Amino acid sequence: MPMPDQIQTQVSLASRTTLGVGGVAEYFVKARTLPELRAFVHWAKSEKHPLFILGGGSNVLVSEEGIRGLVVHPAFSAVTYKDIESDVYVTVGAGVVLDEFVETLVAQGLWGLENLSGIPGTVGGVPVQNVGAYGVEAKDIIVAVEVYDPITDSVQTLSNSECAFTYRDSYFKREGKHLIITAVTFRVSRIATPKLAYKDLAARFSEEAAPSLQDVRDAVLLIRSKKFPDWRVVGTAGSFFKNPIIPAEEYEKLRATYPELPGFPTDDGRVKVSLGWILDHVCNLRGYTEESVGLYSEQALVLICAHGTSPNDVISFSEKIIARVYEATGIVIEREVTIVKNNS
Questions:
Q1: Active site includes 239?
Q2: Which of 111, 137, 165, 205 minimizes the number of CB atoms within 10 Å of its CB?
Q3: Catalytic: which of 16, 168, 217, 286?
Protein backbone atom coordinates (compact mmCIF):
# COMPACT_ATOMS: atom_id res chain seq x y z
CA MET A 1 0.00 0.00 0.00
CA PRO A 2 1.58 3.36 -1.00
CA MET A 3 2.44 5.78 1.80
CA PRO A 4 0.03 8.75 1.97
CA ASP A 5 1.63 12.01 0.87
CA GLN A 6 0.93 13.72 4.20
CA ILE A 7 3.15 11.32 6.18
CA GLN A 8 6.60 12.66 7.05
CA THR A 9 9.67 10.61 7.98
CA GLN A 10 12.26 11.06 10.74
CA VAL A 11 10.48 13.93 12.50
CA SER A 12 11.93 15.30 15.74
CA LEU A 13 9.44 15.09 18.58
CA ALA A 14 11.29 17.34 21.02
CA SER A 15 9.55 20.46 19.71
CA ARG A 16 6.19 18.67 19.85
CA THR A 17 6.30 18.15 23.63
CA THR A 18 6.28 20.78 26.35
CA LEU A 19 9.36 19.21 27.96
CA GLY A 20 11.23 20.01 24.76
CA VAL A 21 13.24 16.78 24.78
CA GLY A 22 13.06 13.48 22.94
CA GLY A 23 14.05 11.50 19.88
CA VAL A 24 12.47 11.24 16.46
CA ALA A 25 9.34 9.63 15.06
CA GLU A 26 10.02 7.13 12.30
CA TYR A 27 6.83 8.40 10.62
CA PHE A 28 4.65 11.36 11.64
CA VAL A 29 1.33 12.72 10.40
CA LYS A 30 -1.52 15.04 11.44
CA ALA A 31 -5.05 13.65 11.05
CA ARG A 32 -7.63 16.41 10.56
CA THR A 33 -10.64 14.26 9.64
CA LEU A 34 -11.90 10.78 10.40
CA PRO A 35 -11.38 9.58 6.79
CA GLU A 36 -7.76 10.81 6.97
CA LEU A 37 -7.25 9.05 10.29
CA ARG A 38 -8.64 5.81 8.90
CA ALA A 39 -6.39 6.03 5.83
CA PHE A 40 -3.28 6.56 7.96
CA VAL A 41 -4.17 3.70 10.31
CA HIS A 42 -4.86 1.36 7.37
CA TRP A 43 -1.47 2.23 5.90
CA ALA A 44 0.31 1.57 9.19
CA LYS A 45 -1.46 -1.78 9.51
CA SER A 46 -0.59 -2.75 5.94
CA GLU A 47 3.07 -1.98 6.58
CA LYS A 48 2.99 -3.57 10.06
CA HIS A 49 4.07 -0.31 11.71
CA PRO A 50 3.25 0.29 15.39
CA LEU A 51 0.88 3.18 16.04
CA PHE A 52 1.37 5.94 18.63
CA ILE A 53 -0.97 8.86 19.31
CA LEU A 54 0.59 12.19 20.30
CA GLY A 55 -1.70 15.02 21.33
CA GLY A 56 -0.39 18.32 22.69
CA GLY A 57 2.68 16.62 24.16
CA SER A 58 2.11 18.17 27.58
CA ASN A 59 2.33 14.95 29.54
CA VAL A 60 4.80 12.90 27.52
CA LEU A 61 8.53 12.24 27.78
CA VAL A 62 9.83 10.72 24.55
CA SER A 63 12.94 8.60 25.07
CA GLU A 64 16.29 9.07 23.35
CA GLU A 65 15.46 6.21 20.98
CA GLY A 66 12.38 8.00 19.67
CA ILE A 67 9.28 6.18 18.47
CA ARG A 68 9.17 3.41 15.91
CA GLY A 69 6.27 3.25 13.49
CA LEU A 70 3.65 5.91 12.84
CA VAL A 71 3.03 8.78 15.25
CA VAL A 72 -0.40 10.33 14.64
CA HIS A 73 -1.35 13.77 15.93
CA PRO A 74 -5.16 14.10 16.05
CA ALA A 75 -5.89 17.59 14.74
CA PHE A 76 -9.71 17.47 14.83
CA SER A 77 -10.96 21.03 15.37
CA ALA A 78 -14.77 21.11 15.02
CA VAL A 79 -16.80 22.58 17.90
CA THR A 80 -20.60 22.23 18.26
CA TYR A 81 -23.03 23.46 20.93
CA LYS A 82 -26.31 21.94 22.12
CA ASP A 83 -28.54 23.69 24.65
CA ILE A 84 -30.22 21.49 27.25
CA GLU A 85 -32.19 23.74 29.64
CA SER A 86 -29.60 25.91 31.46
CA ASP A 87 -26.76 23.61 30.46
CA VAL A 88 -24.86 23.58 27.21
CA TYR A 89 -23.27 20.41 25.85
CA VAL A 90 -20.15 21.41 23.90
CA THR A 91 -18.52 18.79 21.67
CA VAL A 92 -14.99 19.82 20.73
CA GLY A 93 -12.37 18.20 18.51
CA ALA A 94 -9.43 16.50 20.18
CA GLY A 95 -6.91 18.74 18.46
CA VAL A 96 -8.23 22.03 19.85
CA VAL A 97 -5.80 23.73 22.24
CA LEU A 98 -7.31 23.39 25.71
CA ASP A 99 -6.64 26.90 26.99
CA GLU A 100 -7.95 28.48 23.79
CA PHE A 101 -11.14 26.45 24.23
CA VAL A 102 -11.46 27.58 27.86
CA GLU A 103 -10.93 31.19 26.79
CA THR A 104 -13.72 30.83 24.22
CA LEU A 105 -16.14 29.41 26.79
CA VAL A 106 -15.37 32.25 29.21
CA ALA A 107 -15.99 34.82 26.46
CA GLN A 108 -19.38 33.20 25.82
CA GLY A 109 -20.34 33.24 29.50
CA LEU A 110 -20.26 29.45 29.89
CA TRP A 111 -19.18 28.14 33.31
CA GLY A 112 -17.40 24.86 34.00
CA LEU A 113 -13.84 24.80 32.66
CA GLU A 114 -12.50 28.15 33.88
CA ASN A 115 -10.50 26.50 36.69
CA LEU A 116 -8.57 24.60 34.01
CA SER A 117 -7.28 27.85 32.49
CA GLY A 118 -3.64 27.94 31.52
CA ILE A 119 -3.10 24.18 31.29
CA PRO A 120 -1.00 23.29 28.22
CA GLY A 121 -2.01 20.60 25.76
CA THR A 122 -5.03 19.74 23.66
CA VAL A 123 -8.58 18.70 24.48
CA GLY A 124 -7.89 15.06 23.56
CA GLY A 125 -5.54 14.69 26.52
CA VAL A 126 -8.10 15.90 29.06
CA PRO A 127 -9.99 12.60 29.54
CA VAL A 128 -6.83 10.49 29.32
CA GLN A 129 -5.29 12.12 32.40
CA ASN A 130 -8.58 13.10 34.02
CA VAL A 131 -7.00 16.54 34.04
CA GLY A 132 -7.71 18.57 37.13
CA ALA A 133 -6.75 21.86 38.75
CA TYR A 134 -7.94 24.20 41.50
CA GLY A 135 -10.90 22.12 42.61
CA VAL A 136 -12.17 20.91 39.22
CA GLU A 137 -11.53 17.56 37.53
CA ALA A 138 -12.39 16.48 33.99
CA LYS A 139 -14.65 13.73 35.35
CA ASP A 140 -16.95 16.40 36.79
CA ILE A 141 -17.64 18.06 33.44
CA ILE A 142 -17.17 15.40 30.76
CA VAL A 143 -20.38 13.90 29.40
CA ALA A 144 -18.95 11.62 26.72
CA VAL A 145 -15.80 10.88 24.73
CA GLU A 146 -15.83 9.96 21.04
CA VAL A 147 -13.10 7.54 20.00
CA TYR A 148 -11.87 5.71 16.94
CA ASP A 149 -10.90 2.07 17.53
CA PRO A 150 -8.09 1.16 15.10
CA ILE A 151 -8.52 -2.55 15.85
CA THR A 152 -12.18 -2.74 14.82
CA ASP A 153 -12.06 0.30 12.50
CA SER A 154 -15.11 1.71 14.27
CA VAL A 155 -16.20 4.91 15.99
CA GLN A 156 -17.62 4.65 19.50
CA THR A 157 -18.94 7.09 22.09
CA LEU A 158 -18.06 6.30 25.71
CA SER A 159 -20.16 7.70 28.55
CA ASN A 160 -18.62 9.34 31.60
CA SER A 161 -18.95 6.14 33.63
CA GLU A 162 -17.39 4.05 30.86
CA CYS A 163 -14.32 6.29 30.98
CA ALA A 164 -13.66 4.92 34.52
CA PHE A 165 -12.08 8.12 35.79
CA THR A 166 -9.87 8.07 38.87
CA TYR A 167 -7.21 10.45 40.12
CA ARG A 168 -5.06 11.39 37.07
CA ASP A 169 -6.14 8.14 35.45
CA SER A 170 -8.82 6.72 33.19
CA TYR A 171 -9.86 3.81 31.00
CA PHE A 172 -7.73 5.38 28.24
CA LYS A 173 -4.53 4.76 30.20
CA ARG A 174 -5.41 1.13 30.88
CA GLU A 175 -7.65 -1.15 28.77
CA GLY A 176 -8.41 1.63 26.28
CA LYS A 177 -4.81 2.55 25.47
CA HIS A 178 -5.33 1.70 21.82
CA LEU A 179 -8.31 4.04 21.35
CA ILE A 180 -7.82 7.34 19.54
CA ILE A 181 -9.85 10.18 21.04
CA THR A 182 -11.44 12.31 18.32
CA ALA A 183 -13.80 14.55 20.33
CA VAL A 184 -14.93 15.28 23.89
CA THR A 185 -18.34 16.50 25.04
CA PHE A 186 -18.39 18.77 28.10
CA ARG A 187 -21.38 19.97 30.11
CA VAL A 188 -21.10 23.67 30.89
CA SER A 189 -23.65 26.11 32.28
CA ARG A 190 -25.02 29.57 31.59
CA ILE A 191 -25.72 29.88 35.33
CA ALA A 192 -22.86 31.25 37.43
CA THR A 193 -21.31 28.30 39.29
CA PRO A 194 -17.89 29.41 40.55
CA LYS A 195 -15.75 26.69 42.16
CA LEU A 196 -13.70 28.58 44.74
CA ALA A 197 -12.91 25.96 47.40
CA TYR A 198 -9.25 25.73 46.42
CA LYS A 199 -7.35 27.71 49.06
CA ASP A 200 -5.72 30.26 46.77
CA LEU A 201 -9.01 30.99 45.02
CA ALA A 202 -10.86 31.12 48.35
CA ALA A 203 -8.34 33.66 49.62
CA ARG A 204 -8.55 35.73 46.44
CA PHE A 205 -12.35 35.97 46.53
CA SER A 206 -12.97 35.92 50.28
CA GLU A 207 -14.47 39.41 50.22
CA GLU A 208 -16.07 39.20 46.78
CA ALA A 209 -19.58 37.79 46.77
CA ALA A 210 -19.96 37.04 43.09
CA PRO A 211 -16.81 36.99 40.95
CA SER A 212 -17.36 37.05 37.22
CA LEU A 213 -16.28 34.22 34.94
CA GLN A 214 -13.42 36.36 33.65
CA ASP A 215 -12.41 37.16 37.26
CA VAL A 216 -12.06 33.45 38.02
CA ARG A 217 -10.07 32.76 34.85
CA ASP A 218 -7.75 35.69 35.53
CA ALA A 219 -7.20 34.52 39.11
CA VAL A 220 -6.37 30.98 37.99
CA LEU A 221 -3.93 32.26 35.38
CA LEU A 222 -2.25 34.47 37.99
CA ILE A 223 -1.95 31.57 40.46
CA ARG A 224 -0.48 29.32 37.76
CA SER A 225 2.01 31.98 36.71
CA LYS A 226 3.41 32.00 40.23
CA LYS A 227 3.64 28.21 40.53
CA PHE A 228 4.46 27.02 37.02
CA PRO A 229 7.11 28.19 34.56
CA ASP A 230 6.17 29.21 31.03
CA TRP A 231 6.42 25.98 29.04
CA ARG A 232 7.16 28.00 25.90
CA VAL A 233 10.40 29.20 27.51
CA VAL A 234 11.55 26.31 29.69
CA GLY A 235 10.96 22.59 29.30
CA THR A 236 8.24 21.41 31.67
CA ALA A 237 5.29 19.04 31.84
CA GLY A 238 3.65 20.78 34.76
CA SER A 239 3.33 18.48 37.76
CA PHE A 240 5.78 15.70 36.92
CA PHE A 241 4.69 13.43 39.78
CA LYS A 242 1.31 12.40 41.17
CA ASN A 243 0.24 13.38 44.66
CA PRO A 244 0.32 10.03 46.51
CA ILE A 245 -2.83 8.53 48.00
CA ILE A 246 -2.00 6.55 51.13
CA PRO A 247 -3.86 4.69 53.92
CA ALA A 248 -5.20 6.98 56.64
CA GLU A 249 -3.10 5.27 59.33
CA GLU A 250 0.06 5.86 57.29
CA TYR A 251 -0.85 9.51 56.96
CA GLU A 252 -1.36 9.84 60.73
CA LYS A 253 2.08 8.29 61.36
CA LEU A 254 3.66 10.86 59.07
CA ARG A 255 1.71 13.66 60.74
CA ALA A 256 3.18 12.66 64.08
CA THR A 257 6.54 13.72 62.66
CA TYR A 258 5.29 16.43 60.31
CA PRO A 259 2.16 17.96 61.90
CA GLU A 260 1.64 20.45 59.05
CA LEU A 261 1.65 17.83 56.29
CA PRO A 262 -1.42 18.62 54.13
CA GLY A 263 -3.78 15.71 53.53
CA PHE A 264 -7.14 15.44 51.77
CA PRO A 265 -9.51 12.53 52.53
CA THR A 266 -10.67 10.50 49.52
CA ASP A 267 -13.97 8.70 49.01
CA ASP A 268 -12.40 5.32 49.78
CA GLY A 269 -11.12 6.33 53.22
CA ARG A 270 -7.54 7.01 52.18
CA VAL A 271 -5.73 10.34 52.15
CA LYS A 272 -4.25 12.26 49.22
CA VAL A 273 -1.03 13.84 50.42
CA SER A 274 0.65 16.97 49.07
CA LEU A 275 3.81 15.75 47.39
CA GLY A 276 4.91 19.32 46.74
CA TRP A 277 4.94 19.91 50.50
CA ILE A 278 6.94 16.72 51.11
CA LEU A 279 9.50 17.61 48.43
CA ASP A 280 9.82 21.09 49.89
CA HIS A 281 9.57 20.64 53.66
CA VAL A 282 10.65 17.03 54.22
CA CYS A 283 13.19 16.41 51.45
CA ASN A 284 14.35 20.03 50.98
CA LEU A 285 14.31 19.57 47.21
CA ARG A 286 12.51 22.68 45.99
CA GLY A 287 14.86 24.29 43.47
CA TYR A 288 17.23 21.32 43.56
CA THR A 289 19.07 21.02 40.23
CA GLU A 290 21.54 18.68 38.58
CA GLU A 291 23.07 20.21 35.46
CA SER A 292 20.16 21.01 33.10
CA VAL A 293 17.37 19.25 35.07
CA GLY A 294 15.78 20.36 38.31
CA LEU A 295 12.72 20.99 40.44
CA TYR A 296 11.17 24.42 39.98
CA SER A 297 12.11 27.01 42.58
CA GLU A 298 8.47 28.08 43.05
CA GLN A 299 6.86 24.62 43.10
CA ALA A 300 8.80 21.45 43.90
CA LEU A 301 6.26 19.21 42.16
CA VAL A 302 7.27 20.71 38.81
CA LEU A 303 10.29 19.31 36.97
CA ILE A 304 12.03 21.69 34.57
CA CYS A 305 14.80 21.18 32.04
CA ALA A 306 16.59 23.05 29.29
CA HIS A 307 15.23 22.38 25.81
CA GLY A 308 17.37 19.72 24.17
CA THR A 309 18.30 18.00 27.44
CA SER A 310 18.87 14.27 27.12
CA PRO A 311 15.66 12.36 27.96
CA ASN A 312 17.82 9.86 29.85
CA ASP A 313 19.00 12.66 32.15
CA VAL A 314 15.39 13.63 32.87
CA ILE A 315 14.44 10.01 33.62
CA SER A 316 17.51 9.50 35.82
CA PHE A 317 16.81 12.70 37.75
CA SER A 318 13.18 11.72 38.34
CA GLU A 319 14.28 8.31 39.63
CA LYS A 320 16.53 10.03 42.16
CA ILE A 321 13.61 12.13 43.37
CA ILE A 322 11.42 9.02 43.71
CA ALA A 323 14.18 7.34 45.77
CA ARG A 324 14.64 10.39 48.01
CA VAL A 325 10.93 10.56 48.82
CA TYR A 326 10.81 6.84 49.62
CA GLU A 327 13.87 7.10 51.84
CA ALA A 328 12.36 10.01 53.78
CA THR A 329 8.74 8.88 54.06
CA GLY A 330 8.34 5.28 52.92
CA ILE A 331 5.95 6.48 50.20
CA VAL A 332 6.39 5.17 46.66
CA ILE A 333 5.49 8.03 44.33
CA GLU A 334 4.56 7.73 40.67
CA ARG A 335 5.28 9.90 37.67
CA GLU A 336 2.28 11.71 36.21
CA VAL A 337 4.19 12.04 32.95
CA THR A 338 4.16 9.06 30.56
CA ILE A 339 7.58 7.90 29.40
CA VAL A 340 7.52 6.52 25.85
CA LYS A 341 10.35 4.13 25.11
CA ASN A 342 10.44 3.15 21.46
CA ASN A 343 6.64 2.81 21.25
CA SER A 344 6.32 0.83 24.48
A1: yes
A2: 205
A3: 168
